[in-house]
Amino acid sequence: MLTEYLVTLDMSPYLILFMIMVLIFLLGWPLEWVPIVLIILPILLPVVAKLGFNLTWFGILVAVNLQTAWLSPPVALSAYFLKGVVPEWDLKDIYGGMMQFMGIQLLGLILIITFPQIALWLPGYLYPSP
Question: The pTM is what?
Answer without folding.
Answer: 0.83
